[in-house]
From TrEMBL:
Protein name: Nitroreductase family protein
Protein family membership: Belongs to the nitroreductase family.
Keywords of this entry: Oxidoreductase
Highest rank taxon of the organism: Bacteria
Length: 240
């Protein structure tokens, strides 16, 4: 079954329409968002699945205009660094005009960041792992010598993915909830270029990892269908 992002079938649940029109909305009105709605977004995030049901996520919510103004220079530095490197050229398959519109929206958000109504910083602290010797031996037996050696080589990546898998499902819930409430939001990780400075500005503990910076507000403009690759191009059945 194919899915038309612009015209979901009438028999589909409303959630499909929400997903099919959930663009990254970067142009925000300065009008405040009621606390009750912002708390709904965090509740939606908390409902997201968390690996091992550890639920060690925390969410920093910024709405104070003075704090946002202090963060604005950090945001500008991160955006400028992105546009000078990864964002210098559009992704493959995106025409120049469309990419130009995206960059213009990014620059608008950069230049008006101090007026952002709300900013959500999802955080996560993975507990220290201390497997005993018997557990390590049994693990090695289960995986085999070659796979155990490979796991040791990619341990840092494995740990990062484990943490991310605990927090990003909640982030997606937050984005879906924002769209459902008519709010604009977009996920960014640019702040990681200056994570230590962001954490200092927001008094986030040093051992707490941050996973995104999500501006939220009422949109300037309207939601519309997302543009994505067709399912037939990305689907591999029963293997690659």
């Amino acid at each position: 079954m194919s899915i038309d992002a612009g015209n979901p079938a009438p028999s589909q649940p409303p959630l499909f329409d929400t997903m099919a029109t959930m663009r990254a909305m970067r142009r925000l009105k300065p009008d405040p968002v009621p606390d009750a709605l912002l708390e709904q977004l965090i509740q939606a995030a908390v409902w997201g699945p968390s690996g091992g049901n550890m639920q060690r996520y925390e969410y920093v919510l910024v709405t104070d205009r003075a704090v946002m103004q202090r963060l604005a220079p950090l945001w500008k530095r991160c955006v400028d660094a992105y546009l000078a490197t990864t964002g210098k050229h559009g992704p493959e398959g995106m025409d120049e005009a469309a990419y130009g519109r995206m960059v213009a929206a990014i620059e608008y958000q950069r230049d008006h960041f101090a007026q952002t109504p709300a900013l959500v910083i999802p955080c996560y602290r993975m507990p220290a792992q201390a497997p005993d010797e018997d557990g390590l031996r049994r693990s090695a037996e289960a995986l085999g010598e070659s796979a155990s050696a490979q796991l040791a080589r990619i341990q840092e990546r494995f740990a990062a993915l484990a943490e991310g898998s605990c927090v990003y499902p909640g982030v997606q819930n937050l984005l879906l909830a924002a769209r459902g409430l008519g709010l604009a939001a977009n996920i960014t990780i640019w702040h990681l270029m200056l994570e230590a400075e962001w954490k200092q500005a927001l008094s986030i503990p040093e051992d707490m990892h941050t996973f995104a910076a999500i501006p939220v507000g009422w949109p300037r403009g309207t939601f519309g269908p997302v543009r994505r690759r067709p399912v037939a191009e990305v689907l591999h059945r029963d293997g690659w």
